[in-house]
């Protein structure tokens, strides 16, 4: 394939727009990637390319080529190094003519080469040098002008990103271990020098601009007015990349964990900058903080400001252990001085949304990393808080400014987070210091109540006309509203008296408007928002600010006033729903016992949802096990005659059942109703009171489809027209519902004749549905009369008594109902009673249903989940009468179900479901496979079946179950196995259980299957989930013990030894990975890891102190190598060549001592290295070339060549 043909194919692939042409071009280009001389041809493509698409293809092909770990050692060192030099020369020569996407890909290629071969040495040179680590020398030629300097900065940023974040190919255990070693090496040798280099030139920029503006070049104070300096485009790009370079240094993965702190929106509140001790002096250096704040005053309304503030966000997040108390106060003073200076001149923030967002993040970080007693000690604290309060009220909480400045909800979240956290701190202390005056210096009791009142009132007023605000607050499951109100509710408890008076007045005013308004759409919006506010305020009852707020009893009285008003509103809505003619005013309505008529619809869905939310918050604080207060019922009795908790619960339960009787109901309302009912049944005290209520007893005896349309199989056709969830999701709520009912049914169940009658009466509706299924499946063969191997030969079943879709709905409904009921049966008597009802009359019907509906995921997914619940030995409930074979019958039915799934469903899915449809692929294949793995695991660990009995009586059930496991294993790709957490956890849990119970089965698998399992074990060791790592340790420890025991007794099978020999290299690599994890990672489970580690060392003993030791020492300095070598030699001191438990315990002690010695030595060495790396350029030694080479990249302002810098940074 010549260059012109590739040029033509690239044009078709990237720009044709014709899908068929793109597909054919992709196939041809993929063939080119796999050609043996790909490396040389890519260089030819780059040299002769006529279009940027060809250049991009050449660069991306080289990246793919070097991503393959297996191909890297094949390429000679000289070719790799020459290619990196060629790429740099290419960038230098063509920088002005390259398209941006081509430039980015070439820079990425250069960074990838630098990282992949970081520890490679030149075989022709004897000294210990690493040519790929001297990348800064290569950048000297780029000092000629700003465009070239910009390329150099872009390369540095790409290298930093590449070193910090593992790429897509570094997900395996071996690749991630290498990444972590390179990441730590780069941190110790290069990072601080690059950061200081960027900051030095950023200072030069500020100094030059201050000179041009006639300002003092000192950093002690900030300008009195903000400026917008206009740089020439080329110079502006250089400054922007310098700031980005500094930010990339501060967001570096200092611990080498593989996680990126760039994802600030995910875990920003818990962000901590884990800088090493060598950074200490720079963190407390005031010039760095003044530098970044200066960019706001000199480059206002530019893209430089948000980057500079982002750097301040990172500096404010430095780990607390790095600084002592006085140093933390110094840093706080520097940050608050800069923030206060910006607040006095906020024009630059209000004109730029990104700058304002980063500024609010900075304020939120103040409280996340510092406590209130530290903030009150800063200089001019009162002035700082006054400025921040005024800025919050005038600009951030104002809905008008919210629209004018295009603020995102996240921006408001950060500023509210600051105020709420600083208030929440008061709940942990009585005063801020030993002085009595200190507790009054925080000024929170002055500012916070005003913020709360302004927030509530401004939103209520804006909801009259602002549709955008309503959509923002109530869309996406009300996430934004919930987050904001959670913070406002904490703040409201600071002066609860004022807050409740405001809320009651607002409620009374809106209630009057609601009754009088003919079109109540706008009023309903305001009412809905206010009830959510009431609910969140009520939910913050657990926060006690004893130093400022009123007593708990007084707060309960105010809570009672809020509850009274919501109960009156609920009654009013029920009257409106029932279309009663004599409506009473809301403020005088009383709670009634009447329920709405069946076939009615809710009068106001949004108010119904708000009321459910309010009572859910009330339940958390006042009902059952959560808390009790007599004061609140004094208020309820005074206004409504409700004297105790039982009466209030009765009203609430009736409301829930009323919602379930609606013939047309929305998704949100039914989900919220069922969720509230389920939460209400959690806790012994709650259930004890609920079972005494007449509505609950009535439902237990009458849970029929006629009374509750929600339970009807075809009720989904009567949902509201704007329903957004599927019928399967809708019916899933039935499981939750019957779980709650089961908890109450089993309460005080004494298992006498009366209780048996009560349970039998409860099952009558299910018996009626099953009787219908029995008649439908009567024509289908009885599975108990045929061998499981004959399942596949049965003909397709077509029922004559009912349509297939109706049978499907009936099966789904029964399956979900019984699964929910079974999950609440936690005693052996209750479970036995349920199983006796289920088997043998009805349980075989599920096998028939699975066979008939083997191609319908809506059926087989809930069926499998029901059997998972049925076979789970929760609280040892699966204890049967010793004269009965119930346990074996249960396992046999479960095994037959799994066998049908393997022979019918799995084959159907493998042949019909495409992997390209990710959602369908998961629901149809991976989800049921996950459930099957869970079923096998629960059967193995249930401890209610002796599996040896099946072999004794030639029953194939257990063998079939193991064969199902193999079939599942061979049908799942490793990429899928690690891409879906539920599947991953189910797989490793089963592997752990199988290794304990049936290790001979796993050890004697065929070579490909054994390799598959061992490779997944190797990948599992680098998982962030400690449970997965523990499962891998149990498997390896058990397997190696089995191998050594079998060899000792001369019982090792040929297949077992073949597996060990075939994957000898993989065992050795797992050993290296575990050792690297002990040396570099946090390694919380060192006790568990040490058990398989001893077996691996003994398995590779001949090479452990030679090849493996050299591999572990590779890449370290000579000082570290000496320490690590000694520690490795001492690791086996006093250890026998056996795997007895005593020997393992002794080895664990050696491993613990080994890790302690290594960590101490590495910490000491890194500290010395860090202290060396921050010296001036005149005293930097050869081990830290960054400061030397980069500082000469462009002449420094401190050197004799000051003129070129001033020329570079000129306007």
From TrEMBL:
Keyword Transport appears in the UniProt entry: yes
Biological processes annotated in GO: protein export from nucleus
Domain spans labelled Exportin-7/Ran-binding protein 17 TPR repeats: 476-713
A Pfam family it matches: TPR_XPO7
GO function terms (MF aspect): nuclear export signal receptor activity
Matching Gene3D superfamilies: Leucine-rich Repeat Variant (1.25.10.10)
Compartments where located: Cytoplasm; Nucleus
Record-stated family: Belongs to the exportin family.
Protein name in the entry: Exportin-7/Ran-binding protein 17 TPR repeats domain-containing protein
